[in-house]
Amino acid sequence: MATSPCSSSGVSSSSSSGLGADAGLEIRTRSVEQTLVPLVSQITTLINHKDKPKRSDKTLQAIQRVGQAVNLAVGRFVTVGEAIANENHELKEEMSVACIEARRAGETIAQLTDVASLDHPESDSHITIFTDKTGVVKAARLLLSSVTKVLVLADKIVIKQIITSRNKVLATMDQLEKVSSFQEFVQIFSQFGNEMVEFAHLTGDRQNDLKDEKKKARMAASRAVLEKCTMMLLTASKTCLRHPDCESARINKDGVFHRMRLALEQVIEIVTDSRPNGENEMAPISIYSGIKEFKNKVEGLRENLYFLSKENLSTMLEVILEHTEDFTDSAYTSHEHREHILELSKQAKMELEQLVSVWMQAQNQKTKDLMEDLEVAILKTCQCMNDLKREVHSAATSLAADLLKYHTDHMVLKALKITGVEGNFEAVAEYACKLSEQKEQLVEMCRLLRHVSGTEPLEITCIHAEDTFQVTGPQIISAAETLALHPSSKIAKENLDVFCEAWESQLSDMSLLLREINDVFEGRRGEKRVYLSLPRPGKHNANLKALKPVKLDTEEQAKIAKLGLELHLLTSDVDSETEKWEDQENEIVQHGQGMSSMAYSMYLFTRGEGLLKTTQDLFHQAEIFATEGTKLASALHALSDQVHDDKPLLLLEAEKLISMCKQLQITAKASAQGKSATFTKVDACILKTRNVMTLLCQLLPLCCKLLRKNKAGNGCLKPAPPWKEDRIRTGTNARTPERRVDTFGIKSLENHVTNMTFLESK
């Protein structure tokens, strides 16, 4: 990790001029590092100017402009830093000192570059950049050091915000865990949802800004756990409240709380760069990384015969071959792969023995023949290791492909659901054993894939997948046991559905992971584009890969994830509001459900999931969504003709909805050429869809209230027309089991919970 702002390519030139920030400052984020790039560039321009005997007025004016620009920029920067200091008293003194130093250094540089009005700067008593270059270097070093301090201190404030947000979530979780009534649960869970949204936003920005790809992958894994566990926490808690004496329900709920607390703790470890009790993070060694390091050492013998001992090299090979036992000892490795791995392991030992023999001779006598023999031995050893790497890769990926294909039908999960509803406890136990066997297969698959993943981030993703299968398997079983004990419980059934969905989702993620691992092995994976959180995201025209604008790549999905999450939460809110309506066939309800379902499909698109596969699919869905919104506005106008109270407000909201839907249609139909423009259009469509959904959340309770008022009079609302086939074709049915299971629902969930008693009494 860099310890200087000069660590990036954009600032490396400063080192030749003697520039550098405080070596004790560690820059962990790209935004801090990249904020320094233009400053270092300008200062380097000043210091590296050509000392020509004769300088034109143009040169003098240019130097002065750069100096003044640096001073003005520093002044604005310091003003922001001082404002931050005033708001954060624990860092005020340190921040104020750094701001004073930066301002002073900026003014010094401005004075030293005040040369445009001097005809002969050398003969003048005024000290300038031409007469005191050392002074400029000193001022530049002080400026970089102080600015870096301000940035790092500001970064500490971001970390503090994340810690504070985590503490809020933990405190509310403690309350949730102890509640004993639905009413209390509703109130606390609503607060918990808002706190989780805040935490998701803060950690999402931090994840995108981290320089260390390994930490970024760990953060992504932890945030994925929190997102999926939020819905599990809701249904598991509901089940416990409904069946307080059920032991399996309690075990199920406790598992969710425990996993969320571990994920929250890992996020804090990442952002603070610390481990509990001061212990060091021990990263598991994979076969790929071991082979890479071993080959580097072997090839290094060409340059230096004495830089390591033969014992070190032998130990490295022993560690690699010890890890291959994970393959040869696995019950899921084919006989053919096992035999090939054992043969290559034996060959690797022989090649190393031959290499060491020639190496030792070459140390005593460097003859031409011996050096040629050494080169041959190096090549043969490295080739053998390449063959071993290829064999373990083939063993792991072929096993993964077979298992994922075999388990795509989810037969065991379906059987658990059926037997649970039937109350057949013996059959549930039988299928639970089969799920445990499946879990062991998938855990073993993840362990073997980790060895061949090729990069540290992918290794971490494999470890996360292993943990997910390891934890989710027993949770599905406990949820199924609860359902078998209470077969008529809709809440217990919903809970089992949610855990099964998490399992299916992880299997789907494994298919994508396997593809990435194969891409790395085949060399098809290029360098990722850098994402910066400073300046704030929002402009999406930055150097996107020049690919056909068909599908969002992983970088774009990450960038739009926060907006997608907000859309997801709004679909939960809309579903909650529609569930309140007694007449589920009402036209307003049906339009609302249709729009919610389409918005949910758009949310899945931001995750790379669901039926919308391409950007064109998304744009088409946005058009249909806008059309459905316009139909809803017509229904609102019809309602306004039949009511007296709040009629002006209803008409105003209806017109607002029409305007917003028209804007969305214009955006969805607008042409977009190129990757950057297409992504901007995607972002705009989802943003405008979110705005419509926000308005819909306000409209539905208003209409529901008017409906109840008028029902007491003469029933002013007409029945809804039949559900049209074109709605079904566009996937607008919001009430399918799959749609309801995947509702994230961590905001405004009061309606979900208040309706629980009603649902259970049906």
From TrEMBL:
GO molecular function, a single term: actin filament binding
Main location: cytoplasm
Keywords, alphabetical: Cytoplasm
Highest rank taxon of the organism: Eukaryota
Residue spans of biased composition, Low complexity class: 7-18
Gene Ontology cellular-component annotations: cytoplasm
GO terms, biological process: cell adhesion; Rho protein signal transduction
A Pfam family the protein falls into: Vinculin
Cellular compartments annotated: Cytoplasm
Region (Disordered): 1-20
Annotated InterPro entries: Alpha-catenin/vinculin-like_sf (IPR036723), Alpha_catenin (IPR001033), CTNNAL1 (IPR030045), Vinculin/catenin (IPR006077)
Family: Belongs to the vinculin/alpha-catenin family.
Protein name: Alpha-catulin
Source organism of this protein record: Erythrocercus mccallii
Protein encoded by which gene: Ctnnal1
